[in-house]
Amino acid sequence: MRRLGISIYPEKSSENKIKNYLKEMATIGCSRIFSCLLSAEESKDKIIEKYKAINEYAQSLGYEVIVDVSPKVFDKLNIGYDDLAFFNEINADGLRLDVGFTGAEEALMTYNEYGLKIEINMSNNTHTIDTIMDYRPNKYKLYGCHNFYPHQKTGLSLEYFKKCTQRFNKYNLKTVAFVTSQADKTFGPWPVTDSLPTLEIHRNLPLHVQIKHFLALDTIDDIIISNCYPTGDEISQIRGLDLNLVTFNVRTVENLPETEREILFEMLHWNRGDINENLIRSTQSRVKYKQHTFDLFNVPDTIHRGDIIIESSEYGHYAGELQIAKQEMKNSGKSNVVGHVEENEIFILDYIKPWQKFKFKEG
Predict the structure, then answer these.
(1) Which intervals hold domain 6-phospho-N-acetylmuramidase C-terminal (predicted)?
(2) Which residue of 58, 67, 81, 266 could cross-link 63, Cys pair, CB 3.0 to 4.6 Å?
Protein backbone atom coordinates (compact mmCIF):
# COMPACT_ATOMS: atom_id res chain seq x y z
CA MET A 1 0.00 0.00 0.00
CA ARG A 2 1.34 3.43 -0.92
CA ARG A 3 1.92 5.78 2.01
CA LEU A 4 2.41 9.49 2.55
CA GLY A 5 5.06 10.49 5.04
CA ILE A 6 6.78 13.43 6.70
CA SER A 7 10.24 14.30 7.95
CA ILE A 8 11.17 15.45 11.44
CA TYR A 9 14.41 16.98 12.68
CA PRO A 10 14.64 16.80 16.49
CA GLU A 11 17.89 18.76 16.41
CA LYS A 12 16.06 21.79 14.98
CA SER A 13 12.58 21.77 16.57
CA SER A 14 11.17 21.52 20.07
CA GLU A 15 9.55 18.28 21.15
CA ASN A 16 6.16 19.98 21.49
CA LYS A 17 6.38 21.48 17.99
CA ILE A 18 7.20 18.09 16.51
CA LYS A 19 4.43 16.30 18.41
CA ASN A 20 1.83 18.83 17.29
CA TYR A 21 3.00 18.38 13.70
CA LEU A 22 2.83 14.59 14.00
CA LYS A 23 -0.69 14.78 15.35
CA GLU A 24 -1.89 17.14 12.61
CA MET A 25 -0.36 15.14 9.76
CA ALA A 26 -1.72 11.86 11.12
CA THR A 27 -5.22 13.28 10.61
CA ILE A 28 -4.60 13.52 6.84
CA GLY A 29 -3.30 9.95 6.61
CA CYS A 30 0.48 10.33 6.99
CA SER A 31 1.96 7.14 8.42
CA ARG A 32 5.69 7.20 7.64
CA ILE A 33 8.52 9.28 9.18
CA PHE A 34 12.00 10.10 7.92
CA SER A 35 14.25 11.27 10.74
CA CYS A 36 17.92 12.16 10.50
CA LEU A 37 20.92 11.39 12.70
CA LEU A 38 23.54 12.54 10.19
CA SER A 39 23.75 16.04 11.65
CA ALA A 40 23.21 15.12 15.32
CA GLU A 41 25.96 16.63 17.49
CA GLU A 42 24.83 15.60 20.98
CA SER A 43 26.05 12.69 23.06
CA LYS A 44 24.64 9.23 22.61
CA ASP A 45 22.68 9.48 25.87
CA LYS A 46 21.16 12.83 24.87
CA ILE A 47 20.19 11.49 21.45
CA ILE A 48 18.52 8.48 23.03
CA GLU A 49 16.58 10.68 25.45
CA LYS A 50 15.39 13.08 22.74
CA TYR A 51 14.57 10.61 19.97
CA LYS A 52 13.01 7.93 22.16
CA ALA A 53 10.17 10.12 23.42
CA ILE A 54 9.35 11.55 20.00
CA ASN A 55 9.49 8.18 18.23
CA GLU A 56 7.32 6.53 20.88
CA TYR A 57 4.69 9.24 20.45
CA ALA A 58 4.86 8.91 16.66
CA GLN A 59 4.31 5.16 16.86
CA SER A 60 1.30 5.69 19.13
CA LEU A 61 -0.22 7.66 16.22
CA GLY A 62 0.45 4.85 13.74
CA TYR A 63 3.70 6.09 12.17
CA GLU A 64 6.60 3.93 11.05
CA VAL A 65 9.86 5.68 11.96
CA ILE A 66 13.06 5.29 9.90
CA VAL A 67 16.22 7.19 10.94
CA ASP A 68 18.95 8.21 8.48
CA VAL A 69 22.50 7.11 9.38
CA SER A 70 25.89 6.33 7.82
CA PRO A 71 29.03 4.39 8.80
CA LYS A 72 30.32 7.67 10.27
CA VAL A 73 27.33 7.79 12.63
CA PHE A 74 27.93 4.13 13.51
CA ASP A 75 31.51 4.99 14.50
CA LYS A 76 30.57 8.11 16.44
CA LEU A 77 27.89 6.32 18.47
CA ASN A 78 29.89 3.08 18.77
CA ILE A 79 27.29 1.01 16.93
CA GLY A 80 28.13 -2.21 15.10
CA TYR A 81 26.21 -3.46 12.07
CA ASP A 82 25.81 -6.75 13.97
CA ASP A 83 24.29 -5.06 17.05
CA LEU A 84 21.46 -2.61 16.32
CA ALA A 85 20.22 -2.30 19.92
CA PHE A 86 20.64 1.50 19.78
CA PHE A 87 17.89 1.85 17.16
CA ASN A 88 15.56 -0.35 19.15
CA GLU A 89 16.36 1.76 22.22
CA ILE A 90 15.25 4.98 20.47
CA ASN A 91 12.03 3.28 19.34
CA ALA A 92 12.91 3.39 15.64
CA ASP A 93 11.30 0.94 13.24
CA GLY A 94 14.31 0.94 10.95
CA LEU A 95 17.39 2.76 9.71
CA ARG A 96 18.33 4.27 6.37
CA LEU A 97 21.94 3.82 5.28
CA ASP A 98 22.87 7.03 3.49
CA VAL A 99 26.23 5.35 2.80
CA GLY A 100 26.33 1.59 2.92
CA PHE A 101 28.78 -1.20 3.57
CA THR A 102 29.86 -4.00 1.20
CA GLY A 103 26.54 -5.77 0.67
CA ALA A 104 27.13 -8.68 3.02
CA GLU A 105 26.66 -6.45 6.06
CA GLU A 106 23.39 -4.97 4.80
CA ALA A 107 22.05 -8.46 4.10
CA LEU A 108 22.93 -9.62 7.62
CA MET A 109 21.37 -6.51 9.13
CA THR A 110 17.97 -7.46 7.69
CA TYR A 111 17.98 -10.45 10.07
CA ASN A 112 18.50 -8.32 13.18
CA GLU A 113 16.79 -9.54 16.34
CA TYR A 114 14.63 -6.42 16.67
CA GLY A 115 12.89 -6.73 13.31
CA LEU A 116 14.24 -3.36 12.16
CA LYS A 117 13.86 -2.42 8.50
CA ILE A 118 17.07 -1.66 6.61
CA GLU A 119 16.72 1.07 4.00
CA ILE A 120 19.24 1.47 1.18
CA ASN A 121 20.13 4.70 -0.68
CA MET A 122 18.48 4.43 -4.11
CA SER A 123 19.99 7.48 -5.80
CA ASN A 124 23.04 5.77 -7.28
CA ASN A 125 22.81 3.83 -10.51
CA THR A 126 25.19 1.10 -9.34
CA HIS A 127 24.99 -2.61 -8.60
CA THR A 128 24.81 -2.07 -4.82
CA ILE A 129 21.33 -3.53 -4.45
CA ASP A 130 22.24 -6.44 -6.73
CA THR A 131 25.20 -7.25 -4.47
CA ILE A 132 23.01 -7.08 -1.37
CA MET A 133 20.49 -9.40 -3.00
CA ASP A 134 23.32 -11.81 -3.88
CA TYR A 135 23.88 -12.18 -0.12
CA ARG A 136 20.27 -13.30 0.40
CA PRO A 137 18.77 -10.63 2.67
CA ASN A 138 15.36 -10.83 4.27
CA LYS A 139 13.76 -8.81 1.50
CA TYR A 140 10.66 -8.15 3.60
CA LYS A 141 12.86 -6.01 5.85
CA LEU A 142 14.69 -4.28 2.99
CA TYR A 143 13.58 -0.89 1.61
CA GLY A 144 15.04 1.53 -0.91
CA CYS A 145 14.98 5.30 -0.41
CA HIS A 146 16.11 8.10 -2.71
CA ASN A 147 18.01 11.21 -1.58
CA PHE A 148 16.73 14.76 -1.47
CA TYR A 149 18.76 17.69 -2.80
CA PRO A 150 18.82 21.08 -1.00
CA HIS A 151 20.88 22.92 -3.63
CA GLN A 152 19.32 24.36 -6.78
CA LYS A 153 19.98 22.33 -9.96
CA THR A 154 21.38 19.31 -8.08
CA GLY A 155 18.25 17.12 -7.98
CA LEU A 156 17.97 13.95 -10.02
CA SER A 157 16.92 14.08 -13.65
CA LEU A 158 13.80 12.09 -14.40
CA GLU A 159 15.56 9.61 -16.67
CA TYR A 160 18.31 8.94 -14.14
CA PHE A 161 15.71 8.59 -11.38
CA LYS A 162 13.88 5.98 -13.46
CA LYS A 163 17.07 3.96 -14.00
CA CYS A 164 17.94 3.99 -10.30
CA THR A 165 14.40 3.10 -9.26
CA GLN A 166 14.16 0.21 -11.72
CA ARG A 167 17.05 -1.51 -9.93
CA PHE A 168 14.85 -1.77 -6.82
CA ASN A 169 11.52 -2.31 -8.57
CA LYS A 170 12.82 -5.48 -10.22
CA TYR A 171 13.18 -7.04 -6.74
CA ASN A 172 9.71 -5.83 -5.66
CA LEU A 173 11.20 -3.87 -2.76
CA LYS A 174 9.39 -1.00 -1.08
CA THR A 175 10.61 2.29 -2.56
CA VAL A 176 10.64 5.83 -1.20
CA ALA A 177 11.18 9.33 -2.65
CA PHE A 178 10.84 12.90 -1.42
CA VAL A 179 8.67 15.88 -2.28
CA THR A 180 9.15 19.38 -0.94
CA SER A 181 7.03 22.02 0.71
CA GLN A 182 7.26 25.47 -0.89
CA ALA A 183 6.64 27.27 2.41
CA ASP A 184 8.96 30.11 3.37
CA LYS A 185 11.64 29.40 5.98
CA THR A 186 11.32 25.63 5.75
CA PHE A 187 14.31 23.55 6.80
CA GLY A 188 15.86 20.12 6.56
CA PRO A 189 19.00 18.67 8.15
CA TRP A 190 21.48 20.98 6.37
CA PRO A 191 22.01 24.79 6.33
CA VAL A 192 21.30 25.13 2.57
CA THR A 193 17.62 24.82 1.65
CA ASP A 194 16.47 25.75 -1.85
CA SER A 195 13.59 23.29 -1.35
CA LEU A 196 14.31 19.60 -0.77
CA PRO A 197 13.07 17.47 -3.69
CA THR A 198 14.38 14.20 -5.07
CA LEU A 199 13.62 15.30 -8.64
CA GLU A 200 14.94 18.62 -9.92
CA ILE A 201 11.78 19.19 -11.97
CA HIS A 202 9.82 19.20 -8.69
CA ARG A 203 11.84 21.95 -7.01
CA ASN A 204 9.42 24.81 -7.73
CA LEU A 205 6.17 22.89 -8.19
CA PRO A 206 3.29 22.94 -5.68
CA LEU A 207 3.51 20.13 -3.14
CA HIS A 208 0.34 18.35 -4.25
CA VAL A 209 1.46 18.41 -7.89
CA GLN A 210 4.77 16.72 -7.02
CA ILE A 211 2.84 13.96 -5.26
CA LYS A 212 0.53 13.50 -8.25
CA HIS A 213 3.52 13.20 -10.57
CA PHE A 214 4.92 10.35 -8.48
CA LEU A 215 1.48 8.71 -8.55
CA ALA A 216 1.48 8.93 -12.35
CA LEU A 217 4.99 7.43 -12.57
CA ASP A 218 3.72 4.55 -10.39
CA THR A 219 7.20 3.36 -9.35
CA ILE A 220 7.36 4.72 -5.77
CA ASP A 221 5.54 3.31 -2.73
CA ASP A 222 6.13 5.91 -0.02
CA ILE A 223 6.17 9.65 -0.76
CA ILE A 224 7.70 11.77 2.00
CA ILE A 225 7.53 15.53 2.56
CA SER A 226 11.18 16.31 3.16
CA ASN A 227 11.14 19.69 4.90
CA CYS A 228 9.43 21.30 7.88
CA TYR A 229 6.83 22.71 7.92
CA PRO A 230 4.23 22.76 5.10
CA THR A 231 1.63 25.50 5.14
CA GLY A 232 -2.03 25.04 5.99
CA ASP A 233 -2.91 25.55 2.33
CA GLU A 234 -0.48 22.83 1.28
CA ILE A 235 -1.89 20.46 3.86
CA SER A 236 -5.45 21.15 2.71
CA GLN A 237 -4.44 20.37 -0.90
CA ILE A 238 -3.25 16.88 0.04
CA ARG A 239 -5.95 16.11 2.60
CA GLY A 240 -8.03 13.24 1.25
CA LEU A 241 -5.77 12.79 -1.79
CA ASP A 242 -6.22 9.30 -3.25
CA LEU A 243 -2.74 7.73 -3.32
CA ASN A 244 -3.85 4.90 -5.61
CA LEU A 245 -4.21 7.02 -8.74
CA VAL A 246 -3.86 10.51 -10.18
CA THR A 247 -6.66 12.96 -9.41
CA PHE A 248 -6.50 15.95 -11.74
CA ASN A 249 -7.74 19.30 -10.47
CA VAL A 250 -9.94 20.82 -13.15
CA ARG A 251 -11.80 24.03 -13.87
CA THR A 252 -15.15 23.38 -15.51
CA VAL A 253 -16.95 25.56 -18.02
CA GLU A 254 -19.99 27.56 -16.92
CA ASN A 255 -23.41 25.89 -17.04
CA LEU A 256 -21.99 22.39 -17.37
CA PRO A 257 -24.90 19.95 -17.94
CA GLU A 258 -25.62 17.46 -15.16
CA THR A 259 -24.79 14.34 -17.18
CA GLU A 260 -21.43 15.74 -18.26
CA ARG A 261 -20.76 16.66 -14.62
CA GLU A 262 -21.54 13.10 -13.54
CA ILE A 263 -19.13 11.72 -16.15
CA LEU A 264 -16.38 14.08 -14.99
CA PHE A 265 -16.62 13.66 -11.25
CA GLU A 266 -18.49 10.45 -10.48
CA MET A 267 -16.83 7.95 -12.82
CA LEU A 268 -13.49 6.20 -12.57
CA HIS A 269 -11.57 6.86 -15.77
CA TRP A 270 -8.75 5.01 -17.48
CA ASN A 271 -6.66 5.53 -20.57
CA ARG A 272 -7.39 3.14 -23.43
CA GLY A 273 -4.74 0.55 -24.16
CA ASP A 274 -4.38 1.58 -27.81
CA ILE A 275 -2.88 4.95 -26.98
CA ASN A 276 -2.15 7.83 -29.33
CA GLU A 277 -0.13 11.05 -29.12
CA ASN A 278 -3.10 13.41 -29.29
CA LEU A 279 -5.64 12.34 -26.69
CA ILE A 280 -6.11 10.40 -23.49
CA ARG A 281 -9.35 8.49 -24.12
CA SER A 282 -11.70 7.17 -21.43
CA THR A 283 -14.48 5.29 -23.18
CA GLN A 284 -16.71 3.70 -20.51
CA SER A 285 -18.87 6.81 -20.26
CA ARG A 286 -20.08 6.34 -23.83
CA VAL A 287 -21.21 2.82 -22.84
CA LYS A 288 -22.90 3.88 -19.60
CA TYR A 289 -24.69 6.82 -21.24
CA LYS A 290 -25.32 5.35 -24.68
CA GLN A 291 -29.02 6.19 -24.48
CA HIS A 292 -28.34 9.83 -23.61
CA THR A 293 -28.35 12.65 -26.17
CA PHE A 294 -25.26 14.85 -25.80
CA ASP A 295 -26.15 18.24 -27.25
CA LEU A 296 -23.56 20.72 -28.47
CA PHE A 297 -23.07 23.53 -25.94
CA ASN A 298 -19.39 24.60 -25.92
CA VAL A 299 -17.55 24.04 -29.19
CA PRO A 300 -14.49 26.33 -29.45
CA ASP A 301 -12.64 26.43 -32.77
CA THR A 302 -9.40 25.29 -31.10
CA ILE A 303 -8.90 22.57 -28.52
CA HIS A 304 -5.90 23.32 -26.27
CA ARG A 305 -3.55 20.98 -24.44
CA GLY A 306 -5.19 20.16 -21.09
CA ASP A 307 -8.76 20.67 -22.36
CA ILE A 308 -11.24 17.98 -21.29
CA ILE A 309 -13.68 16.90 -23.98
CA ILE A 310 -16.93 14.96 -23.86
CA GLU A 311 -18.04 14.09 -27.35
CA SER A 312 -21.48 15.19 -28.52
CA SER A 313 -24.02 12.93 -30.21
CA GLU A 314 -22.92 14.52 -33.50
CA TYR A 315 -20.03 12.01 -33.27
CA GLY A 316 -22.30 8.96 -33.44
CA HIS A 317 -21.12 6.00 -31.35
CA TYR A 318 -18.36 8.18 -29.79
CA ALA A 319 -21.05 10.22 -28.01
CA GLY A 320 -20.24 10.55 -24.29
CA GLU A 321 -16.57 9.54 -24.62
CA LEU A 322 -14.30 11.57 -22.37
CA GLN A 323 -10.95 12.75 -23.72
CA ILE A 324 -8.08 14.93 -22.52
CA ALA A 325 -6.13 16.81 -25.18
CA LYS A 326 -2.38 16.25 -25.06
CA GLN A 327 -1.69 18.83 -27.71
CA GLU A 328 -3.44 21.70 -29.50
CA MET A 329 -5.76 20.75 -32.37
CA LYS A 330 -8.61 22.12 -34.45
CA ASN A 331 -12.08 21.23 -33.23
CA SER A 332 -14.10 19.20 -35.71
CA GLY A 333 -17.17 21.17 -34.68
CA LYS A 334 -18.60 18.13 -32.85
CA SER A 335 -16.59 18.17 -29.59
CA ASN A 336 -17.74 19.87 -26.39
CA VAL A 337 -14.97 21.21 -24.14
CA VAL A 338 -16.23 20.70 -20.58
CA GLY A 339 -13.21 21.82 -18.57
CA HIS A 340 -9.48 22.28 -18.34
CA VAL A 341 -6.79 20.57 -16.25
CA GLU A 342 -5.02 22.83 -13.75
CA GLU A 343 -2.12 24.43 -15.62
CA ASN A 344 0.68 23.12 -13.39
CA GLU A 345 -0.70 19.57 -13.63
CA ILE A 346 -0.88 19.43 -17.44
CA PHE A 347 2.63 17.97 -17.77
CA ILE A 348 1.43 14.88 -15.85
CA LEU A 349 -0.70 13.94 -18.86
CA ASP A 350 2.49 12.76 -20.58
CA TYR A 351 3.02 10.11 -17.88
CA ILE A 352 -0.42 8.48 -17.97
CA LYS A 353 0.20 5.00 -19.32
CA PRO A 354 -2.12 2.61 -21.19
CA TRP A 355 -4.90 1.37 -18.89
CA GLN A 356 -3.79 3.73 -16.09
CA LYS A 357 -6.67 4.94 -13.92
CA PHE A 358 -7.39 8.57 -13.02
CA LYS A 359 -10.07 10.82 -11.59
CA PHE A 360 -11.04 14.50 -11.58
CA LYS A 361 -11.66 16.97 -8.77
CA GLU A 362 -13.20 20.38 -9.22
CA GLY A 363 -10.75 22.99 -8.03
Answers:
(1) 246-361
(2) 58
